[in-house]
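Notes to self, Glutathione peroxidase:
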Amino acid sequence: MVLINTIMLLASMLSPANSIYDFNFTSIEGKKIEMSSFKGKYVLIVNTASACGFTKQYKDLQALHQQYGKDLVIIGFPANNFGEQEKGSNAEIQNFCEKNYGVTFLLSEKVEVKGSEITPLFQYLTTQENPDFTGDINWNFEKFLINKEGKLVHRYRSKVNPLDKSITDNIK
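result:
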């Protein structure tokens, strides 16, 4: 797994991505998902964890998904990078999210969102030219809003609730 992530990271560095549509990920069920399949929709990318003080944001992410699902794709990327707050297997994470928060939006398999094994998508998201977007992820439940053209347009820190006006105003 480490070798595969390293190869993917090196490959992404050799041919820089122009948008998130140049990436794919594996769903929590093990299915390959092409980000290009979301062209024409807003995408909210969130690094998540099941044992975090912000875990209750799953509820509001689900509400956002239900309210704007026609125009917005939400993807949760479980990660164990902060305080070991996502120790479970993919199956355990999926069960937790469905049972406790009724999550029906997309979840990826567990990923790395910082460090030497960072997933290429998160490498791309955290190395944008705009200084408002660049830099390591600081904690769970940071959010990246992608516009309908596949470009990162906003980055929201963990404390910003998914239903905050600063998010909803940008997806209308």
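- The helical segments are 2-14, 57-68, 90-101, 120-125, 165-168.
- The longest helix spans residues 2-14.
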